[in-house]
Amino acid sequence: xFFLMIRRPPRSTQSRSSAASDVYKRQTNGLLDRAADFLIDxxxxxxxxxxxxxxxxxxxxxxxxxxxxxxxxxxxxxxxFYGHYDKQPHMLPWREGLDPVNPVIENGRLYGRGGADxxxxxxxxxxAIKACQVQGLPLPRxxxxxxxxxxxxxxxxxxxxxxxxxxxxxxxxxxxxDSNTPEYKGLWLTNSLRGSVPLKFSVEILTEGVHSGDxxxxxxxxxxxxxxxxxxxxxxxxxxxxxxxxVNIPPDKYAAAYETATYLGKKVYDxxxxxxxxxxxxxxxxxxxxxxxxxxxxxxxxxxxxPATATAxxxxxxxxxxxxxxxxxxxxxxxxxxxDLTHLIEKDPPYGAxxxxxxAAFGDGWNAPPLHPSLEEVLNKASEAFYxxxxxxxxxxxxxxxxxxxxxxYSKAQFIVAGVLGPGANAHGPNESLDLDYTRHxxxxxxxxxxxxxxxxxxxxKA
Length: 463
What we know:
The chain is of the alpha+beta class. Helices cover 33% and strands 21% of the residues. A hairpin with a 2-residue loop joins strand 4 and strand 5 (109-111).
């Protein structure tokens, strides 16, 4: 199941839910439905006493898995578990012996697309609940929501949460198992997530391609125009992004970043598969850590209108299209950033070229509030018990699209955002893998939290 290939609809800021619905109806290959059915069937076979689980699906939208478990004591509140079961594309090639859809266990790691991002979430959640029931521990009311749309921007999730709002209730704790760990030692909680603005833009200079020997030097290359436009967004020498996308880093998060970067040292940069002779942009762990967590960064993630080198002729091409991903600081307004980026790209086009932004989308980041001392204590004890190391805090450079919306909707809830995406996990790339021992210990930590009645009463606003 972990490794089913899910086709992703494109994202757009204009009527995103409606557009995704139309694309889902046209392009679905049925694998989302198969995956949801599999998860529901598997969950039912775990014999969780009192658990009710179902597939919820609005017309034209990917299915969502929703489960409820009545608690032993209402004073323990409601714990809301979030995860997703949709996957990124395969990103071929994988190394010999591995395959995105045929799982392989090797050296304690489970290889295959979507195991670590985020196929394990429902298995971990059910495992933690089951562990508490087997031990006869009192449990809070539990709500489980596993979406099938996260990798496409969670465009359907807001509608589902509104539809299910009465059944969800008012969670006192929200657990999201879809984040990172910098190492496979200790429980690490995410205390911030970056936002993002993905978009495409095209540059057109001619109505059709012409002989490069005849036109070069007269007609500007669309590639050169694109280089000029990209320089508006970030410095080509340093990579520093335009000040309009920068923020002041909150003092508490800067202090936490300093502590984490100092602890990790060169682990901040040596986890990536550089080619021989290549190096990071700096060897300062703190600067690199802040770069990937609290500073905007630009990546070119795709291109169209470029022929393969094997078939490319001496042609000055009429058009070039790039796909960009601009990662944003956690506290920056992503909707405004999308508008600012669009304006920056389209304004004053060089040589009067036609410059057009397509499919601009945005997702807000998240800056976590402080954790309740009682909950922090329980999680720290769990980390020490199962990992032999105290609880750590991590600012993450990735985005989880819906966390900020959940935080706004459930403003009194405590958030536990954690995950198994550590060194070598390579989510979104080839050879994705999940560290099995680390994942088992994470399940144990979540079980200890669920079984800590005094703590759950302390963080329940209604207790």
